[in-house]
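Trying the structure run again after the queue cleared.
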Amino acid sequence: MNKEDQVLRGLRDVLNKMGWLNRLKMEESLKGYKSSEVHCVEYIGRNEDPNVTKLAESFFMTTGAISKLTAKLINKGVIESYKKPENRKEIYFRLTEKGQDIYKIHEQLHAEFQNRDKAVFQPVTEEQFDSMLRFVDRYNRHLDEELKKLDEEIKTGRGQ
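Done. Tokens:
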């Protein structure tokens, strides 16, 4: 196996293990909420004037799927929709008090996970962090370009 394969496999393994460990604690602390719902709450809590389009782009989901997700969260009393006086057409979302509670629990869990993994990050030098961040940024930009190409292919009917 070449080094590229080793890096990709290693990243997948790390993310899968983190997901497994984190999921168990999340499900215990946030019973009754799916991961997608909690991450939607997180996005709404962190961003100004979130709407269906911004959520869909962030989660790589269709606007229809996001509409269903936000409708569930509205029905659960976690978020509410609003419109701005200057734009009565666009619908935005904000957290309710119940949504704020979920957001806080989620943030506390992330802090707990970060603390759990501190031992891995403490010995990393600034130069090593910078190198890793450059790699992640370069890979993200590459994937963004690939997503743009795919989007264009779908729009022009070539992606079928």
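The beta strands are 79-84, 87-95. Worth checking whether this holds up in the mutant runs.
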